[in-house]
Design brief:
The protein has six helices and no strands. The chain is mainly alpha-helical. It has a domain at 2-90. Helix 2 (20-42) packs antiparallel against helix 3.
Length: 129
């Protein structure tokens, strides 16, 4: 939560003199280097050869969704207040919970539904003009 919040503010600050595409390339390059370095340090890169096609497909699809998400997020971040963009982004939790219920068959508890409703209400309040 802390690093995610700080990262968005830093990203907005870093876009001052550049466009969102260059900013995203720089951020993603740093991310890739750190993730590969962490996997290498943990010895996990040896597991690449054990990935089956179904797993690879799901991970590639997740990567494509993440790429589209980040492109749109950085476009929004360049043109709007980071507080509004971050709020709308966090409302994506509702999509995650609903998909996890329908696809992964995870339970929808009253507490979870209340939390989703609160997130939705808060988002609507903050983006209402």
């Amino acid at each position: 939560m802390l690093t995610g919040g700080v990262a968005m503010v830093f990203a907005k600050m870093g876009m001052g003199s550049t466009n969102e595409h260059v900013a995203l390339v720089i951020r993603t390059s740093v991310l890739l280097a750190m993730v590969v370095g962490n996997a290498w340090y943990a010895g996990a890169l040896k597991g690449l050869t054990a990935i089956n096609n179904k797993t690879l497909l799901w991970l590639v699809l997740a990567g494509l969704c993440t790429a589209v998400y980040w492109i749109l997020y950085f476009k929004a971040l360049k043109t709007a207040n980071v507080s509004v963009v971050a709020t709308i982004d966090r409302a994506g939790i509702i999509v995650t919970v609903l998909l996890s219920y329908f696809i992964l068959k995870e339970p929808l508890t009253p507490r979870l539904l209340l939390g989703m409703g609160t997130i939705l209400a808060g988002t609507l309040i903050l983006v209402w003009k």
